[in-house]
Each structure stands twice: as C-alpha cells, then as structure tokens.
Amino acid sequence: MKAAGRIAYWMVALGLLIAMLVSLDYQADQAALISLVFGPCAIALEFWMPKARKPIDKVYLSLAVLVTVTLLILVLHHSLWTTMTQDGFISTQKEVSPMLVNPAFLGVILTALAVGDYFWGKWLGGRFREENRSITFYSDRKSVTLSVNDIAYIESNDTEVHVVTLDGKSYRNKTGINQWEHLLGEPFLRIHRSYLINANRAILSTSDCVLVSGKELPVSRKYKDTVRTAFET
What's the CATH code, domain 137-232? Predict the structure, then answer.
C-alpha cells in the first residue's frame, strides 16, 4: 500500500509539473519528457541531503543537482528539438523557456518535490505501518537483516552509527543518523543529535533521560518537549 501511495504521489506531482510546462507553451509530449528529468533529481536530493553532515556539503549537493537538471533540459532541447537545414545550419524548433534555466525556479520545484515526497512518505509510514517489517543494511561489509521491532536504538558516533538491538547486539554502519530516522519512521523518536530510539521499547525515566533496553540515554534540550509530548500521548 505504501509503494502504491508513493507511485500515486509522483504521478500527481509530475502531472502538475506537466500542466505547468504546458502553460509555458510546451506541447504535452515535450512537457512530459522534461518533467521526467525532475523526478530522479528530486529523489536524489531527498536521499543524499540527510547524508550531508556539513552545511557546505549541502550547498555543493544542491548546486550539483541544479547543474544536472539544467544540463539535462538543455540536452533534451538540443537533441530532440533541433534540426539541420539543407544549408548546414541548425534550426531550433523549440527555444528553452527562461524559467527552465533559472536556478531559483528550478530550486523551488526540486525542493517542493523532495519535501512533498518526504512528508508524504512519513504519513504513509504512520498510516500503513507494517508490524513485522524488516530492514537490511551493511555492517563491517556484511549484509544484516533485522526486524525493525528488534532495534532498541541508533547511536551516532562521529563518522559511523551503531545499530543496537534489544538483546544487546551492536552493528556498525556508515549511514547517517538522519537517514536512519527517515528510513525507520515511526515509532522511532529522535531524543538527541546522537540518539534515535524505538519509542515502543523505551521508558521516560526522567525529563532528561530515557531508559531503553536497560540503558539510560540522554535527552537533549532541543528534543525535550517533543520527547515529553510523545511519551505523554
């Protein structure tokens, strides 16, 4: 059901994008081709942005995606909508709309698509939660598959994280904690920049600590109100 929901989101989003491009004097088939450029780039932005730890890395990633989208649009125009005349000159059948080479406009479109998909995915995760879902990742170059319900918490430690299970096992992984938060969804709760816990397996022992699988983890000031509200409800 969640996969169908994600597909429906992209169909609607790309349909709206096609309608917008048609309003810029593109034909429907031309608009459809150009809209397909935005989908993969927005997904790449959504996937890689949480992995960018430093602000400058986020800037570089944003610039790389913007440049990629612009180049793909220009390539489409050059390869599909230009012809060679008998005199050897290139005749352009369709000029590039100024909006489609405007970084601000492209940034707004890509951000809207990526943010919309992120929040839609989180809503679907809460609405159609799979009780026995599992997750597969790599730890020390070995593939590991765990039931999400068996994960107690995620601990971030500099350039790697530790996936700790209810029975005390720990698995090293290179995926950032922000990406883990996105992958796991509910009922996992961020309590600290270094900790993501399974709220169904935790107890709020004090206003500053959470007890998870026999270990007390600190609650930072940034997440204190969110954590208190989550455990009260």
Answer: 2.40.50.1020
Give the pLDDT confidence of 70-123 residue by residue, as tens digits: 999 988 888 777 654 445 444 455 678 888 989 999 999 999 999 999 888 877
Closest alpha carbon to 224 in 200, 201, 198, 195: 195
What are the tokens at 99?
């909006």
Q: Domain limits of the chain?
A: 2-127, 137-232
Per-residue burial over 188-215, b = 16 or more CB atoms within 10 Å of its CB, e = otherwise: bbbbbebbbbbbebbebeeeeebebbee
Instruction: List, in order, residues 6 or more apart from 42 with CB less than 8 Å away.
Output: 110, 113, 114, 117
